[in-house]
Amino acid sequence: MTSLARQIEQRDPFRNPLNLMLLTKCKLTLIYISSKFILLSEWLSLYIINRKQNSPIGDQVIQMKDIRRQMKGKEGNRVRVTKEFVFDMGHALIGYDGPCKDIHGHTYHLSVTIIGIPLEQPGAAKDGMVVDFGLIKEVVHDKIISQFDHALVLNQSLPDEFKNSLGAVTGKLVYLPVQPSCENLLLHFKNLVEPVFKEKGWELFSMKLYETPTSFAEWCVSDN
Ligand SMILES: [Zn+2]
After folding, report:
1. Distance, CA 66 to ligand 1 centroid (Å)?
2. Based on CB atoms within 10 Å of each CB, which residue in 5, 7, 131, 147 is the most buried?
3. How far, in Å, from the CA of 211 to the mean position of ligand 1?
4. Which CATH number fits domain 79-223: 3.20.20.150, 2.40.420.20, 3.30.479.10, 1.10.1040.50?
5. What value does the mean pLDDT of the chain take?
């Protein structure tokens, strides 16, 4: 090593590749020891919890696994259940540059998907279910179908004289604060049912609204 190189190394010892390698090794060892310490402390806390419950030693391992699974929020396999609905509805996309600007109708297909862990409660009425399909139907009928089936849905920003003339030809008019596109209708429907699902402890996973057999909009919790 030249005297200049030795001077540089004395000022900054980690310029030497051997020293740098040793430092990296030390860091990796420290990370490894820390991760083992975290695992050990978790094991000890679980052990203490089980000791407090005075469980037989044979059951402790099983209970510890259960507690660990609960701590991670994985109590079982999550399953998605879907209920589908069909209804007819009219709408018009005022200002749109296509045929949907005029009043017309569609047969809409709506699917609602709830996700959860099937109930494990032998003897219970809902044993084996994430949620009873019949109960999803009740909510969707109450909040969406009863209001929108055979209705004419329009943007509320339309001129009053136009709204008044429509009132004379149809009794089931719904005005939305947005353009009643497939996407906006889907979001509106989602906002109508999601709070009810939450109240009931159901987790909404996704909703799909088909305007035609080949055109649909989809909302999914993982996208938001
Ligand atoms: Zn349309």
Report:
1. 51
2. 131
3. 7
4. 3.30.479.10
5. 82
Distance 84 CA to ligand 1 centre (A): 20
C-alpha 45 to ligand 1 mean position (Å): 60
**CA 159, 173, 154, 220 torsion-angle sign:** positive
Active site residue 150: yes
Residue 182 annotated among the catalytic residues of the structure: no
Summary count for the chain: helices (H), strands (E) = 7, 6
Q: Where are the alpha helices (H) located in 72-224, listed in sequence order?
A: 133-140, 146-148, 160-167, 182-200
Mean pLDDT of the region 73-83: 85
What pTM was estimated for this model as a whole? 0.67
Domain ranges of the chain: 10-71, 79-223
